[in-house]
Amino acid sequence: MSKRLEPSEIEERLAQLQGWEFVDNFIIKSFTFKDFKEAFSAMTRIAFECEKMNHHPNWENVYNTLVIKLSTHDAGGVTEKDFKLAQTIETIFTS
Amino acid sequence: MSKRLEPSEIEERLAQLQGWEFVDNFIIKSFTFKDFKEAFSAMTRIAFECEKMNHHPNWENVYNTLVIKLSTHDAGGVTEKDFKLAQTIETIFTS
């Protein structure tokens, strides 16, 4: 079971990621793609990783935009699992 | 180009659909699935239809839940295109 991180720990880890913010008890990032097909393709790749990690995002898609919000429900806040998933998502986008 | 429908026209068409509501200039429905895999599989089927129709939803997924909001950006409101897509989504779920 993952432990909820303190805001100072969250800020420390966010410094190692590009474009993620800590808002309302989630770590959040917005992405913009060329079109819907590109956005949904990225979502599909992320979905497989989430399923493998058994850790799932709150996410919202509108045409070519995607907002991903990560938090650990059971822990009531952001945990290491969220940073692990954020890192995996970044790896997908830079691959 | 689709014409924005009047609220009375929207209500009339909603009466022919199961579980859709008119809220904040969108027609909206929430779906619940067994798990994330089922939810995302449904999204994938919907995504292909949207791409074919060139009409895309605002949608939000959290684990096994999916909220779909339809509106026609260019028309500034709900049009026949949204009802056509809602009908297609219903057909996917009942197939």
From TrEMBL, chains A, B:
SUPFAM superfamilies named among the record's database cross-references: PCD-like
InterPro entries cross-referenced by the UniProt entry: PCD_sf (IPR036428), Pterin_deHydtase (IPR001533)
EC category name: lyase
EC numbers, comma separated: 4.2.1.96
Keywords (A to Z) from UniProt: Lyase
GO terms for MF: 4-alpha-hydroxytetrahydrobiopterin dehydratase activity
Any one Gene Ontology BP term: tetrahydrobiopterin biosynthetic process
Reactions catalysed: (4aS,6R)-4a-hydroxy-L-erythro-5,6,7,8-tetrahydrobiopterin = (6R)-L-erythro-6,7-dihydrobiopterin + H2O
Record-stated family: Belongs to the pterin-4-alpha-carbinolamine dehydratase family.
The protein's name: Putative pterin-4-alpha-carbinolamine dehydratase
Organism: Flagellimonas olearia
